[in-house]
Amino acid sequence: METKSRTLEITILSAEDLRTGNTPVKKNAFVVVSIDAFNSKETKIDGEGGSYPSWNDKLVMEMPVQTRFITLQVKYCKGSSSGGEKLVGVARIPVTDFIGGYSPETCLQYLSYRLRDAKGLKNGIINVSLRLKEPLRDCSSQAASAGGIGLGIPIDGPTDFGVVTGIPICSAYPPNAFFR
Fold it and tell me: Which InterPro entries does the UniProt entry name for this protein (predicted)?
């Protein structure tokens, strides 16, 4: 049996206000992106950003069709003397946030998510961009578009049968690009 998958391109841009307890993270933050238990990748370590790290790491991963969530875990290295890594916060991205909405699946989307620590408390924000490199082909949607099936919305009253068509516009700019 063949398992279908799509190629996901996710760029981990930055994070904001990372803390451990009430203390801001000082340095060495990184992100682990997991699609399932066997498919995960991590960003490089940001050794300078502190509680506002920036990575801008593009990760390309295979995403099975049945995937419901993508998990982002923000961690930091404790230091060479104590060793190990500590979880700062987790965000789960529903696949429905970037597939099946109003914008095309291959459109680049900029999204921000609240991070939650191990106790479930708010602990910063993570900013990402993502898109599918190629959409999954579906015969039923091709037949519908070829047959001209759509929603007719009256424009000028009950006798006007014009059709209003909305076209999603993909943003070419990251969040807050004009407000920095």
Answer: C2_dom, C2_domain_sf, C2_SRC2/BAP
User: Are the CB atoms for 18 and 142 separated by under 8 Å?
Assistant: no
- Compute the distance between CA of residue 40 and CA of residue 171 in angstroms, rounded to an integer: 27
User: Are the beta carbons of 50 and 14 closer than 8 angstroms?
Assistant: no
Residue 180 lies in a domain: no
CA distance 150 to 167: 13
Enclosing domain of residue 103: 5-132
Find the largest Cα–Cα distance for the chain: 77
Is residue 157 one of the residues assigned to a domain?
A: no
| Per-residue confidence (pLDDT) for residue 163, from 0 to 100 | 46
Q: Is residue 143 part of a domain?
A: no
Domain presence at residue 50: yes
CATH number for the domain harbouring residue 45? 2.60.40.150
Mean pLDDT of all residues belonging to the chain:
79
What is d(CA 39, CA 71) in angstroms, rounded to the nearest whole number?
11
Q: How many domains does the chain have?
A: 1
Give pLDDT tens digits for 26-37: 999 999 999 988
pLDDT digits (tens, 9 = 90+) for 129-141: 999 987 655 434 4
Distance, in Å, from the CA atom of 117 to the CA atom of 91, rounded to the nearest integer, reads 9
